[in-house]
User: Which sequence fits this backbone?
């Protein structure tokens, strides 16, 4: 756990601006940085605080996930990610994120049965897929189909009804793998495969993706376990860009399906969840170990616009603890599949070694993040690179839903409406077109 709270933490922060001094309350959490409550700043000083990118801004209080970026630590409801990845399973982590505690046996069985029974999609929704080009990026399909869920599941869109919030949460967690597998099947021109109630979450997803009607399909338990662990690693991550998008969308009262569709759209960006696809494409472009120095040089040249995808993080200024587990899982999957000397893994490991010894990356505290090794693993399992961010979205849905639920139930929360520093034209009168210069 990060250092104990300083016992002398002042309960107030003072700010002097425009000849006026105001006191603002300082609030402490369980662990981590204190916050200065600036809610009265504009009212008492006429100033906004300015923080593009929210590098120093907490937009909520939360009990779900804690990240200590300097220590390279990630906790879900207090449990370290490496312990959950090694000892738990994705569905149990879903219960933990949603409810705050690990389930006992009856709770786990009820939750598992509920999720299993929500995996099917309304049959009419299959028609959405045929509206897309076969070569549409599957994330485009995910945005469309998930947003359309609200057109089919009206009985779980009333955000003020706790029962409907629970049903919507379970439907989203359960149906995302089905929707994602259907997006993959559509892209390869194969028939959709229905979920099976006799399989667990990750095994079911693998069979929906890789089974075909004309032959029996047996799930490889090693691959299923590895995928389950990958889902755990991607489940939630505090107030990242897509989670903040879901919270902001939810603050307007939008239905949960629309909010998750907004989160999917945000996750797609290469600076965020799209980095796993971009990282694999980068490793493929580098191709061989001898070309690494050329790319390290480009990454250090600001004018190149090139960054090492899968490296760096807004919060982690140490090794992303998920990347460590991801690297271990990558080796396990390649070994299980008998893939020796995967060239991209050699490139990735050598790139990591060189970068971690290079002053530029050391000074800027740039370490591999979760996206650096995930692509090699997912490609080895058989997923095309376009599906990598889709799998991230399947896993992150529980985090989005848990954070959305917490926001709805938080008495402090109201519609999010940031202000701005206006740098446009001062007030001026309209000039008829014929009189303009
Ligand atoms: C995810 O927020 C989350 O929690 C996200 C996530 C989650 O689980 O939800 O963890 C998932 O999105 C992981 C990050 C995946 N993105 C990438 O791998 C893309 C490559 N990385 C970056 O573009 C960047 O590191 C970010 C976007 C991840 C972080 O951006 P920041 O915090 O705004 O950092 P920055 O852009 O200000 O960079 C700080 C410095 C800059 O140099 P200076 O201006 O200080 O001189 O480091 C440099 C950057 O130029 N830098 C890099 C770099 N990342 C940052 N230089 C080369 N290669 C990189 N990858």
Assistant:
């Amino acid at each position: 756990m990060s250092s104990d709270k300083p016992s002398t933490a002042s309960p107030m922060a003072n700010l002097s601006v425009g000849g006026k001094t105001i006191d603002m309350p300082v609030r402490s959490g369980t662990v981590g940085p204190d916050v200065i409550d600036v809610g009265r700043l504009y009212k008492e000083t006429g100033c906004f605080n300015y923080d593009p990118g929210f590098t120093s801004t907490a937009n909520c209080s939360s009990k779900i996930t804690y990240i200590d970026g300097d220590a390279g630590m990630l906790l879900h409801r207090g449990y370290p990610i490496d312990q959950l990845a090694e000892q738990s399973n994705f569905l149990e982590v879903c219960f933990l994120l949603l409810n705050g505690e690990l389930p006992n046996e009856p709770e786990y069985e009820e939750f598992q049965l509920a999720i299993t029974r929500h995996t099917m999609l309304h049959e009419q929704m299959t028609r959405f897929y045929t509206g897309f080009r076969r070569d549409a990026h599957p994330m485009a399909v995910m945005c469309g189909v998930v947003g359309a869920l609200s057109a089919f599941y009206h009985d779980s869109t009333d955000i003020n009804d706790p029962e409907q919030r629970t049903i919507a949460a379970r439907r989203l967690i359960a149906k995302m793998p089905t929707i994602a597998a259907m997006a993959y099947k559509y892209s390869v021109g194969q028939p959709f495969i229905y979920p099976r109630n006799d399989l667990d979450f990750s095994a079911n997803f693998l069979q929906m993706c890789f089974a075909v009607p004309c032959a029996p399909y047996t799930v490889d338990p090693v691959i299923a376990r590895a995928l389950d662990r990958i889902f755990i690693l991607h489940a939630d991550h505090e107030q990242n860009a897509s989670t903040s998008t879901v919270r902001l969308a939810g603050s307007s009262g939008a239905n949960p399906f629309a909010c998750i569709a907004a989160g999917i759209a945000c996750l797609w960006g290469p600076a965020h969840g799209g980095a796993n696809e971009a990282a694999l494409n980068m490793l493929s472009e580098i191709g061989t170990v001898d070309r690494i120095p050329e790319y390290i040089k480009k990454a250090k040249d600001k004018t190149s616009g090139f960054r090492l995808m899968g490296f760096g993080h807004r919060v982690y200024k140490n090794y992303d603890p998920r990347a460590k587990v991801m690297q271990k899982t990558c080796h396990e999957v390649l070994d299980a599949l008998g893939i020796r000397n995967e060239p991209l893994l050699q490139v990735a490991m050598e790139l990591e070694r060189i970068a971690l010894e290079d002053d530029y990356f050391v000074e800027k505290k740039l370490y591999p993040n979760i996206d650096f090794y995930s692509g090699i693993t997912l490609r080895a399992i058989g997923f095309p690179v376009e599906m990598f961010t889709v799998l991230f979205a399947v896993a992150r849905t529980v985090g989005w839903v848990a954070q959305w639920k917490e926001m709805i139930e938080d008495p402090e929360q109201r519609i999010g409406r940031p202000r701005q520093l206006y740098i446009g034209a001062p007030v001026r009168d309209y000039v008829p077109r014929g009189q303009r210069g």
In short: The mean pLDDT is 94.
